[in-house]
Structure formats: structure tokens, C-alpha cells
Amino acid sequence: MKALHVVDYVVIGLYFAALVGIGLWSVRKTRSRDDYLVAGRRLGFPLFFGCMSAMAVGGAVTVGGTGKGYSDGIAGMWVGGSLGMGLILLGMLVSNRLSRLRALSINEVIERNYGAAARVFGAVLTIIYTVALTVVQVVSMGAITAGLFGINLRWAMFGSGLVVVFYTFLGGMWSVTMTDIVQFVIKTLGVLIFVPIVVLNDSSIGGISGFIEKVPESHWNLGAYGVSGTVYWILLYVPGLVIGQDIWQRMFTARTPSIARAGTLSAGAYTIVYSLAAVVLGMSVRAAGIQLDDPSMAFEAGVSAFLPPGIAGLLLAAALAASMSVASGTILACSTVVYNDLYVRFIRGHGTASADPHDVQDAADSQRDAWINRGIALVVGLAIIGLSLLIGDLFKALDLAYGFLSGCVFVPVIFSFVLKRISPKSGFVSLVASAITVGGTMVFGEATNRPDFAVGGNWPITFGIGVGLVAYLLVMAVDRTRIVPNVEIEDEPAAVLEAGSSASAERPSPVGTGSNVPSGQDGGHRLRL
């Protein structure tokens, strides 16, 4: 593999320094809890679209997708393509409602409809998902850093992870937003525009005709994974993108519902196109005859082989940036769940979601909560770095993350948006039954060495969704208690909603089981979403 020029190392070093600088600058923007967790809920379309796109095209798409292109060919598009489809589905189904909820976590929606126990159980599942997804990014960052600087993988994971934890700790969502925009611009100019042009003009490739000729014929089969393999990626990502806390938290940053919807749909389309570019880069490494023992090194190998000094360093920094985008967002998402769904309930002793997170606060209280969230984010980030050093397998952690999210949380959350009447008990039973099913199936598969049933197999998610669906419908059939799903907010002037005023300037409707409206009642002055 071609060695990097000293200019590349200088560029990478400056890039890391810039990220830390952005974190320090973002402290000035973070004066309240909502500033720290959801960027004050005031992002316009350019910032929102860039952040949502950067969140989607993390290490799994940039590094993992390039590796899949090298080893499997065009079928590797199903990795990033499924993420894109999930964002598009989210934009079509619930983006408007989510941005109007003015919530902080997905589990607030769960409690509104299924009670406090369901919220706590959902919080545990969400923590598993966000922790595992962050591990994916830390492993990815470590692999790139180790390859760049020739250092031990574990030290590389530790060092790059600390950078992300540091700027996330300082600036929260504002820090994440500003670093995401930088990363989005670099990845777009590099991977999506510059790399295809340079690669196809490289003498070792020989243009489009040479590329087509030199790529193995088997690499042009979009269905190379077969039906079960293709369905696996769709089941893994699409439901998870629709109800992921990290994605929802980005949704809450939009200034208006229309920005949330348009930005999410656009980010979905962007992700699909970007995933194609990453896969093509991996196929180009194969076409150039570069031999790799580890396909995960395909991105680094391709960039260092095809691009001139300086540009190569910038693109490798962008690969790190891709993982950092997701890692910072998922660390923040995990810390938000710990704060909003566990700390507020068990440490402060508030029994309902409305009792604390959305109370009108003075400046001192709001700043205090921002620092509490900083502390939680720091602890969560350091714990994740430690866990990453123990796991060290990118796709294993990814499979674990989305296995529990897609297999367990998808059914009750989606039903709360699409059904007109629900049973409060149905969601909790569905969560518990599907979690036991997903975990049990994974344990069975690992113990019996049956990959389809183990972590990364099709059956844990399939069985989880199936059992969760059956459990939900059975409880609905036997439980005569019915409520109107509570995904609503207090009736407010349209100007307030469009202005995207901060949570401290308004008081959303109470959430929790007591706020659900029994069947047949209008529930007072509310705006039905």
C-alpha cells in the first residue's frame, strides 16, 4: 500500500486540531439544556440537511461500504442504500410529527402511550443500541488511524475516541452540528465528486471501459447476497433508522416541521448516492490490482493510491470524520436517554416525563442541567471507548445495535403513530417479548454455531419483529382498555411553531400515562398531529 506524504499527515493533524477548536468555540453557544441536547431547536435547512446526511454516512458506509465494494462489488450498496431508504421512510411517515413533539428522546413517546415501565425498558434497549453503534464508529476510527500512523489498533481507537468525547462533552449538539457540517462538505467534495473523477482517470484503471473490464464479473451482481442477505440489510437498517434515538434527536433540532421533512428526505437520497460512490471506490481498488488481506483497509488503500498529497490526507481525515459524525451523535443520544429517561426519574424522583424535562427553567437551572448532561456524556463516552477496546469488531457491534433496535422497538413506536386507538399494555408486552426473542435467538445461534441465528444473522431481527407484532396484536385483542395515541402538543400559535422557539419559552402537553386521552374524549385544547 502506498505510503502517505508528510503533507497528508500535516493536513490530518490540522483537521483534528480544528475539531477540538470547534468544540471549544461551541461552549459559547451552549447556555441551556436544549442548546446542549438539540442545538436550541433552531437549525435551518442547510445545517439540518448537512447534519442528517453526515450522521447517516458514517464509518459503516464510508469505510465499511468501500470494503464491501472491494470484497463483494456493487451488492455492497445495500449497506448504505438501506440507511438511505430508512431516512426516506422516516421523512415520509413521521418527520413532521416528530419535529412538533418537542421531545428529547424516543422513550417519551413510548411513555405517552404505554406507561412508565415501558419507557424505562425502552430506555435500556435504546442505550444498548446507541452504545453498540458508537462502538462501531470507534473501531472504524481506530482502524483508519492505525493504518495512517502505523500504531497499535487499540491505542488508535483510544486516541481518536478521546477527540470525539472531548468536543462532544464541550459543545453537545452545537459542537456536533458544526463538526458535521465541516465533515459533510469534505466528504461530498471528496468521496462524491473528486474521487470518482480522479480514479477513473488513473492509468491503472484506464477510464470507464477499463474499470468495467478489470472489475470481476461477479462484482456486478446487485443480488450477490441473495434474497436472505439482501433482506437482512433492509431489516437491519430501515426500521432502525425510522425509530433510532440518534436520528430522532437530530430531527428535534429542525426549526420547523417542513425543514425536518425536506431535510430528512434529501439526506436519504444523498446517502444512497454516497454509498454508490464508496462502493465504486472499493471496486476501483480491486480493479487496480491492489491486494488487501483486510477489506476494511480498502478506503485507505484507494485514497492513498489514487489521490495526490494533501488531498489524500484530507479525504482520509474525512473518513475519520464520517465515523466521528456518528460517534458524537450516538454518544450524545445515549447520554440524553440516560439523563431524560433514567436520571430525571430515579435521581430527581420525577414520576412522569413532563415533571422535569420540559419545565420552564431559569437561566441558572438550565445551565446546571447543561453541565449535568456534559458529565453524563463524558462518562458514557469514556465507557464506550473501554467497551470498544474489548469488542474490536465493526460489523459485530453494528449487528448487535440494530438487532435490538429494529427487532424490539420498531413495532410499538410505529403503531403509536399509525393507529387511532391502542392498548397501553400492548407496547410494554411487545417490548419485553421481542427483547427476549432477539437476545435468546442470538445466544442460541452463538452457542450452536449457526450464523443465521447468531449476532449478524437474519433470524434474530425477523423473530423479534414477528414476536413483537404478534404480542402487540394479542394484547390489543384481549385488553378492552383503549386510548388515543398521544403524539400531540399543546395548541400554540402557528408563529411560535414556525419560529422554533426554545423549550424554555413554552410548556408542551403533559406526557405519561396520565395524559393519554380515553377513547371518546376530545382531550381539551390540543393540536392533533
TrEMBL record:
Superkingdom of this protein's organism: Bacteria
Keyword flag Endoplasmic reticulum: no
Membrane topology, from the record: Multi-pass membrane protein
Residue segments, region Disordered: 500-529
Listed transmembrane segments: 6-27, 47-67, 73-95, 116-149, 155-177, 189-212, 224-244, 265-290, 310-339, 376-395, 401-419, 426-445, 457-475
Entry-linked InterPro entries: Na/Glc_symporter_sf, Na/solute_symporter, Na/solute_symporter_CS, Sodium:Solute_Symporter
Protein localization: Membrane
Record keywords, A-Z: Cell membrane, Membrane, Transmembrane, Transmembrane helix, Transport
Signal sequence extent: none
UniProt family annotation: Belongs to the sodium:solute symporter (SSF) (TC 2.A.21) family.
Protein name, as recorded: Sodium:solute symporter
